[in-house]
Design goal:
The complex is a heterotrimer of chains A (390), B (102) and C (297). Chain B has a domain of 64 residues: Alpha-Beta Plaits (2-Layer Sandwich), CATH 3.30.70.20. Chain B is 10% helix and 14% strand. The chains are: A alpha/beta (390), B mainly beta (102), C alpha/beta (297). The interface between A and C is large, with 43 and 45 residues.
Chain lengths: 390, 102, 297
């Protein structure tokens, strides 16, 4: 029987790590990731876990030592945030290119300057092309469950690609909720020990992370792209399998909420999806046909899903807690591109930067703007909402 | 000659099945020789050699073979740097132009 | 622990490397692997050594090995060593890192400091050729005073490298209280290999800084790599020392230093120097030796 506890998303994720039984955890502290790595230290201090915990001198070394451990065939975990993620950026592509299935948590936080410790998703989005699978969670429960699922996805022989589990800084990492903690036996039955030949071996020595010139480089990158295609299927099947075990499903790559007869939908990533749900319910009660598409997997991007709904809705708004300066919000670019040729009206709302609150009223405004566009009103495609001055 | 061999029959992967995984490979694979680095090669006067092993120890390539009765040089991997000739205390190693062997 | 040159194994664990003729780094790496044997897992950062040993399909290393990022060698082998313990690997397996001077004393210093402070069970060998040779000879934190490099070119306003003293990796590591650190030279293979052997038998973070001349970057005949390395020691511009049990020790002190020009004149990177430069370099040498003698005695 699983037990319930009142946990922050960071603590919940730490339980996910403990239950996944990694051999090595390596981390360097940064707000708002710290309470996660502190909880992991508590587990060791209390004798509840017995992995090796490397307290390294920087994020670069956190990911480098995680790589070293993974090269030995160890199940490995690390966590970071914001500037720390940017600092370990170099190592991210080493890990993905050598196909080491490390799982990390990124406690999403804004990036300097201006220096800011609060949540948005600019840190993760800046790592878009690092070759990592990128999942975003909506709650502490989903954080715990997704860490466990992440190992199963990452270590799948067809996938063998690292996974970044994104948890919105403060909004999730430091807020408490009731979380169900699965039993170790349940997790063990779901997640087998990590087994690979892509590792150092005294009987069968290996050259790893070798240099590859133009002659074979493209083929290696093509296989990485194929791995992401496999990951698309795996993320869904792992979610289904986990749902059978625990009764909790997150939809796989995306989750539609009240979309069946919806005219206007919002695409949301991370914690804001929870607020959107509440707004959808309220607006539905008022007779408005609104829905939510929660984007759980940003990489691989569920292109096929968006293609399949390109003529289903009258208008689609995308909420972005990031902006690719000089173009659009990062998620919006992807959605627009996947829905190429769509008849739907589209808009992008840039909100929540540097930790600014995203109140329900703001989300309601988004839906109303979208309804306005449906009835012929012209709106700017990309809008920063909730600014101090018009 | 007790030295790793030039893998003359090495074949590059020719299908997806043969393609390496990630960025991994085996160890000790020598698809090409290093003789092309060389314009000079060492010739050891085995009569004068006292087998002090100075050439063997200082050869960066490790291509001097001491397993036989006389020291021998692996000409597939000698780059002709001449350190052996410089360090030989008996001066019994001569650097000779490739193709001019006695 | 004495290394007997005659009884060293025939087996080469590094072979067919694509480094330049007469490469000091290749020599140092070969000798280290000879001592450590096949029960070794090796990592290197992106450097000359990596670029000449393991470019697919070639793999000139005969033990488990990996390339990691330039600043990340110490942290990567730390992770390997810690994982080996977690996975219950045999304790006699050595985790060896080989990096150049730039990869160690400049970009790699932070990671090495971390590994040293955590005292992870690794051997870290810094092969010092006094510049970034893989990228074509740019100066590093241990480039010799007045040396020409591509970023310290000589001209009416420049006499080469401006920094009078090499950053002392040896003393930086000693300040971390590592169980063992040493300096060495490829011209003294017995001394170097005995240091590697000693490091193999000590648990914790061991760091060896070995001088490995580079014929291409320094501009000398590849045949005199060992002679050049030897002259550096005989002229007092490099030294052989050890730090263990919190004590410093010189392994070899020349009775009398040879004039520095014997070393400098062999190399194109110093050809712009004149008599006054030689005497200035000698004066610096004496300052450094007086300081070290006081500290190490």
């Amino acid at each position: 029987m699983s037990k319930k506890a009142f946990l922050s998303a960071n603590e919940a994720a730490a339980y996910g790590v403990k239950l996944s039984k990694p051999h090595v955890v390596s981390a360097y502290p940064i707000t708002p990731q710290t309470t996660l790595v502190e909880k992991i230290a508590d587990f060791l201090a209390n004798g509840e876990a017995d992995f090796k915990y490397m307290m390294v001198e920087s994020e670069h070394s956190a990911m480098a030592s995680a790589l070293g451990a993974s090269l030995m065939g160890a199940r490995t975990f690390t966590a970071s945030s914001s500037q720390g993620l940017l600092y370990m950026c170099e190592m991210l592509s080493y890990v993905s290119g050598s196909r080491n299935p490390i799982v990390m948590v990124d406690a999403n936080r804004s990036i300097a300057t201006p220096w800011n410790i609060f949540g948005d998703q600019r840190d993760a989005m800046a790592m878009r092309d690092s070759g990592w699978i990128m999942l975003f969670v909506e709650s502490g429960q989903e954080a715990l469950d997704t860490v466990i699922q992440a190992y199963k996805i990452a270590e799948d022989p067809e996938v063998m690609t690292p996974v970044m589990v994104n948890i919105d800084g403060f909004t999730l990492t430091h807020t408490y909720d009731m979380v169900e903690i699965p039993e170790q036996e349940e997790v063990d039955s779901f997640l087998p020990p990590y087994n690979t030949t892509n590792k150092m071996d005294m009987k069968n020595p290996k050259t790893l992370c070798q240099s590859v010139g133009p002659d074979f480089h493209t083929e290696g990158r093509y296989l990485q792209q194929k791995a992401f295609e496999a990951a698309k299927r795996k993320i869904v099947s792992v979610n289904d399998e986990y749902a059978k075990l625990t009764g909790r499903s997150y939809g796989g790559l995306i989750e539609e909420y009240r979309c069946d007869d919806a005219e206007v939908v919002l695409v949301a990533t991370g914690s804001v999806a929870g607020t959107v749900r509440a707004v959808v319910d309220e607006m539905r009660e008022a007779g408005k046909k609104v829905g939510l598409i929660k984007l759980r997997s940003f990489r691989p991007f569920p292109k096929e899903y968006f293609e399949s709904v390109k003529d289903k809705f009258k208008a689609i708004g995308v909420i972005d807690k990031s902006i690719s300066f000089g173009y659009d919000g990062t998620v919006f670019s992807e959605v627009k591109s996947a829905m190429y040729g769509s008849s739907a009206k589209m808009a992008n709302y840039i909100v929540g930067l540097g930790g600014r609150d995203i109140p329900k009223k703001m989300l309601e405004d988004m839906y109303n703007k979208l309804f306005g566009m449906v009835s012929g009103k012209n709106e700017a495609e990309v809008q920063f909402l909730g600014m101090r001055w018009e | 000659m007790n030295k790793p061999k030039w893998n003359k029959d090495y074949k590059a992967p020719s299908s997806w099945d043969e393609m390496f995984f990630g960025s991994s490979n085996g160890v000790g694979i020598l698809p090409t020789p290093n003789s092309g680095f060389r314009t000079l090669h060492p010739e050891i006067d085995s009569e004068a050699c006292i087998k002090c092993m100075m050439c063997w120890i200082f050869c960066p390539e490790g291509c001097i073979d001491k397993s036989g009765e006389h020291l021998e040089v692996d000409m597939d991997y000698c780059k002709g740097c001449g350190i052996c000739a410089t360090e030989c205390p008996k001066e019994c190693i001569k650097m000779v132009k490739d193709g001019d062997s006695e | 622990m004495a290394v007997n040159l005659k009884n060293l194994p025939d087996e080469e664990l590094l072979y067919g490397v694509k480094t330049c003729q007469g490469c000091g780094v290749t020599l140092a790496a070969r000798l280290a692997l000879k001592v450590l044997g096949e029960r070794t897992c090796l990592a290197t950062p992106a450097c000359c050594f990596a670029a000449t040993t393991t470019v697919y399909p070639q793999s000139s290393i005969f033990v488990n090995n990996a390339i990691t990022a330039f600043p990340a060698l110490a942290s990567t082998i730390s992770g390997m060593a810690v994982a080996a313990e977690a996975l219950g690997w045999d304790e006699d397996i050595t985790f060896l890192g080989i990096a150049g001077d730039g990869g160690t004393v400049d970009i790699g210093l932070q990671a090495l400091s971390g590994a040293a402070e955590r005292n992870d069970n690794i051997i870290y060998i810094c092969v010092d050729n006094e510049a970034y040779m893989n990228t074509g000879n740019q100066r590093s934190g241990v480039t010799s005073y007045k040396a020409w490099t591509t970023t310290t070119p000589t001209g009416p306003c420049s006499k080469g490298e401006k920094n009078r003293f090499k950053k002392s990796l040896f003393e930086i590591m000693a300040a971390h209280r590592v169980p063992y650190t040493a300096t060495a030279s490829v011209a003294y293979p017995k001394d170097f290999m005995e240091k590697v052997e000693k490091a193999k038998n000590i648990k914790g973070c061991k760091v060896i800084h070995v001088m490995t001349p580079c014929p291409t970057g320094w501009g000398y005949d590849p045949a005199v790599t060992v002679r050049t390395a030897k002259l550096a020691v005989e002229c007092g511009l490099w030294y052989l020392a050890e730090f263990e049990n919190n004590e410093f020790k010189f392994n070899f002190v020349p009775k009398e230093f040879k004039p520095v020009e014997e070393y400098l004149k062999l190399q194109r990177r110093f050809r712009h120097l004149d008599e006054s430069d030689y005497r200035e370099i000698e004066a610096n040498r004496d300052i450094e030796w007086n300081r070290m003698r006081k500290r190490f005695a």
